[in-house]
Amino acid sequence: MINSIFQKTTIFFFTSILFVLLSSSASAQYKRQQFEITPFAGYLFTSNLQTFDGELKINNSFNYGSALDIRISDDLLIELLYIRSVTGVSFRKEFYQTVEKLFDMSVEYFQGGAHVEIETGPFRPFAAFTIGATYFKPKNNAYEGNWEFSFTAGGGIKYYFTNNLGVRLQWRFLVPIYFTSASIFVNDGYSYIFVTGGTYILQYDLTAGLIISF
Fold this sequence. Notes:
Porin, eight-stranded antiparallel barrel, 66% strand
């Protein structure tokens, strides 16, 4: 079932890209607006987490959110980003090959970063990078919610029908980070800070959104 959803989502995403490519007009000119608000929705894919006793499985799920972009130059925008999804968490035991449903969980990303447009005109490829925090909230009072540092990186295409309306198609990696240790060293009047950490899951999504610019 998951493979079927993945195939349908991928086909929809790339079909939408092809439609935009075929409908774009190189001769059209649109004014670059100061602000863009983009509500979006899509599908989120999540890797599983290996443990000593088995595998923690986090279901793929639909996600949604909104981006606010503020233009500070011709091709550079500051981006504020919010993403939310609701998923299920289960545990597959290593030796018994049984799967136990643990709880449902919401995942929220609160991010800020940069958004760079590569071309001018109605058709604009772009890249975006943000940093911030992610909140994991189990829908079970036996488990506490948890905040983690995180970042996102991705890109896509935007197509503007008018000066104030367009569509945004995007793929994006979403990476929560945990920190394991931090050390501070002082030598010859200089301070050095060393931080070690890693990520326990990797997420990525495919989304489509409506751009409202002004």
